[in-house]
Design a protein that fits this description.
heterodimer; A: mainly beta; six-stranded mixed beta sheet; five-stranded antiparallel beta sheet; 60% strand; globular; B: mainly beta; four-stranded antiparallel beta sheet
């Protein structure tokens, strides 16, 4: 059974810093990996989707990488802003379902 | 474009009462549909998924059930709610990636 782990569980940084969120998974036979953002009390917003054949995806200040063989993905956020404060969830898809990590709660201080 | 609707947004129900949460998808046919639950401070737990009408797979034994009466409709139900059923329920469909509804906050009192 696929297990997804995210570290750190929480992160607090000053505005302007570059930061990296980590995600690891136990079963490398994935179809894709997706990073989501969740604001308190809200649903999940998709940030980046990486197919199993891809190594990275970029959107604005966000860059996600995938190393399938080692079971790892990172989400890089450049020049962080207070509006980036949220919980970031990593999810991997095997077969017909997607497994989630517990998330990293990010706080960016002005 | 594809959209997913989930309602109600919040719900407070007494212990022992029934439950029905509805999710509908627009702009796609024969989607894979999912129900997840997120307990306070915890990750998302897959409850049910469906690959077609009348086809439901359950991930964990629980007090809940799911049904898919139409291609783009997915319903989460319970005959008698327990306190432990409280949580944030999310419906999703999968295309290239997953798209989630806005969630239902259920509080069982």
């Amino acid at each position: 059974k696929q297990e997804v782990t995210q570290i750190p569980a929480a992160l607090s940084v000053p505005e302007g810093e570059n930061l990296v969120l980590n995600c690891s998974f136990t079963d490398s036979a994935i179809y894709n990996l997706q990073w989501f953002r969740q604001d308190p009390g809200k649903g999940l917003t998709s940030l980046l989707l990486i197919q199993s054949s891809q190594r990275e995806q970029t959107s604005g200040r966000l860059n996600a990488s995938l190393d399938k063989s080692s079971g790892r993905s990172t989400l890089y956020i450049a020049a962080s802003q207070p509006g980036d404060s949220a919980t970031y969830l990593c999810a991997v898809k095997n077969n017909n379902d997607m497994r989630f990590g517990a998330g990293t709660r990010l706080t960016v201080k002005p | 474009s594809q959209t997913i609707h989930q309602w109600p947004a919040t719900l407070v129900q007494p212990v022992g009462s029934p439950l029905s949460l509805e999710c509908t998808v627009e702009g796609t046919s024969n989607p894979n549909l999912y129900w997840y639950r997120q307990a306070a401070g915890r990750g998302l737990q897959l409850l049910f998924y469906s690959v077609g009408i009348g086809q439901i797979s359950s991930e964990v034994p629980q007090n809940l059930s799911a049904s898919r009466p139409q291609d783009r409709q997915f319903i989460l139900s319970s005959k008698k709610l327990l306190l432990s059923d409280s949580g944030f329920y999310l419906c999703a469909w999968s295309g290239a990636g997953y798209t989630f509804g806005s969630g239902t906050r259920l509080t069982v009192v």
